[in-house]
């Protein structure tokens, strides 16, 4: 039997990606669409401006949108909600759903760095799910809140994990080239980004630095212990619609040859035996000198794989490489859905 699920913030860009990923999902039945009071009461096709290239699923178009209220009858029989809410709304709305016994898988940033909230990348640190019990004890929730990180953090953490496991991490330096969809449909004016690059994304560098340390750290005695390495990040917005690209420089604790780094990344496939519907090989390696590229590679693994290329020795660090992810699929809705799939199969 499928588990009933709902979406909070269903009309936005990430909410639409949730709808695409949950359509005909073998584990989940999408029964509730929550959005703002402005959208509530309208059919979904009337409430939202659909940004995706594929049409609105027929079974969703005529569904009536309801307010994002935990006590609304439409959410009564829902066990899991996926949150695409803005951070300012998520901070108050998500806890209400957790109190009402719902498991909230959140793409919002509001709760990520809370001391008892798991920040999960399924392939990297799913053992952090155990912090949900600490959260329930601390907050009196019958449900709980599980977050996934910032889109760019997902790209970096997935590629750093196999290197860390094999050789350790001392220093990491990352420069991002982030697509405009990461800022939302109205986020970057056309006149600002066409023929241009913007070398600043508010709060992004701090998120990547703190989130990577939390994710690549440990849980001990009900507390998160940050990873033991230093990380610096520079973030840039570029005129690409979808697909975040990162130039990553890594100094390992132990000596590592380029071929060993490539082998560690290529063999990294920790959840291949779980048969998760949204799962794809986490890292796909390209050997061409000019790959990955957003337009050519962002949909690899149905948008769920990180594509890595140009792995090579660095004269200052140990290694350097280029990584690419689809920021609104692997870096947003897909991360939450994959977290829920594993939690249901392994922990529920």
TrEMBL record:
Summarize where substrate binds, as residue positions. Answer: 178, 204, 237
Record: residues binding phosphate = 112, 207
Q: Name one GO molecular function term.
A: NADP binding
GO BP annotations of the record are: 'de novo' L-methionine biosynthetic process; diaminopimelate biosynthetic process; lysine biosynthetic process via diaminopimelate; threonine biosynthetic process
Q: In which pathway does it act?
A: Amino-acid biosynthesis; L-methionine biosynthesis via de novo pathway; L-homoserine from L-aspartate: step 2/3; Amino-acid biosynthesis; L-lysine biosynthesis via DAP pathway; (S)-tetrahydrodipicolinate from L-aspartate: step 2/4; Amino-acid biosynthesis; L-threonine biosynthesis; L-threonine from L-aspartate: step 2/5
Enzyme class, UniProt record, top EC level: oxidoreductase
Query: Locate the Semialdehyde dehydrogenase NAD-binding domain: which residues?
Result: 4-132
Q: Which UniProt keywords apply?
A: Amino-acid biosynthesis, Diaminopimelate biosynthesis, Lysine biosynthesis, Methionine biosynthesis, NADP, Oxidoreductase, Threonine biosynthesis
Provide the reaction this enzyme catalyses. L-aspartate 4-semialdehyde + phosphate + NADP(+) = 4-phospho-L-aspartate + NADPH + H(+)
Q: Where is the active site?
A: 151 (acyl-thioester intermediate), 244 (proton acceptor)
| Highest taxon, organism lineage | Archaea
- What EC designation does it have? 1.2.1.11
Positions with a binding annotation for NADP(+): 11-14, 38-39, 181-182, 327-328
Please name the InterPro entries in this protein's record.
Answer: ASADH-related, Asp_semi-ald_DH_pep-lack, Asp_semialdehyde_DH, NAD(P)-bd_dom_sf, Semialdehyde_DH_NAD-bd, Semialdhyde_DH_dimer_dom
> Which Pfam families does this chain map to?
Semialdhyde_dh, Semialdhyde_dhC
What functional role does this protein have?
Catalyzes the NADPH-dependent formation of L-aspartate-semialdehyde (L-ASA) by the reductive dephosphorylation of L-aspartyl-4-phosphate.
The UniProt entry, under HAMAP family, shows: ASADH
Q: Which family does it belong to?
A: Belongs to the aspartate-semialdehyde dehydrogenase family.
Please give the subunit comment from the record. Homodimer.
The UniProt entry, under NCBIfam families, shows: asd_EA, PRK08664.1
In Swiss-Prot or TrEMBL terms, this protein is called: Aspartate-semialdehyde dehydrogenase
Which organism was this protein described from? Methanococcus voltae (strain ATCC BAA-1334 / A3)
Q: What is the lineage of its organism?
A: Archaea, Methanobacteriati, Methanobacteriota, Methanomada group, Methanococci
Gene encoding the protein: asd
